[in-house]
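Task: complex structure prediction.
Instruction: return structure tokens for all chains below.
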Amino acid sequence: MPATPAVLPELIQAALAAIDAHAEEVTELDRTLGDGDHVTNLQRGLRALLAQSDELAALDDWSQALQKMAMTIMSQIGGASGSLYATLFMTLAKQLKGKAMDLAAFAEAFEAGVEAMKQRGRSDVGEKTMLDTLVPVAAYLKRAAGEGKDLDQVLEEVKAVATEGMESTRDMLATKGRASYLGERARGIVDAGARTSQLMICTIADKLAE
Ligand code: ADP
Ligand code: MG
Ligand code: MG
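Output:
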């Protein structure tokens, strides 16, 4: 894992490019299951992060950078996804305070972050949300760090874990958010938030592996 936030501009840029490239597909998903604004919500947030990315990169401390990102996400991304991602980044910042960045520290912080998202959303895996991508990824990272797996292998394997989690939402009924009103009609469609978190995780993993 990169020791400093200097890598952030590149990662934010890559995440935004991945969302832009799949904008139509994801908007269609959120139009069916939600209100169709998920992509524009994320794009607004990622563009705001990109605009401050030089500032973020200049910080030599991951915790400070993540805290700053949480504030930007909170103020720029409306809707459910904004408060959930802000919660994730705020928790990452808190957990990584005073720690050196490595896979073990990140895995521990990420697990706490996803737990905080569950609390915030009063939700868990199996409810057809982004948590179906993020929870298995958090569990995988924790396990991989515990086993002392090589980072290149982790960056490869985490993509399959995220993709499997995202795909698991296809046949689920939704019990949280707007999609819960659809009942059986929600089956057969992947959750937009699960798809975008998978897209961002895969693209960030590829960037970090370069
Ligand atoms: P909104 O639903 O407020 O319009 P977005 O469209 O940006 O916000 O985000 C929708 C995504 O947020 C959903 O696809 C789902 O993945 C996620 N989501 C919504 N509510 C919850 C919740 N309570 N817990 C976890 N994730 C949620
Ligand atoms: Mg929406
Ligand atoms: Mg909305």
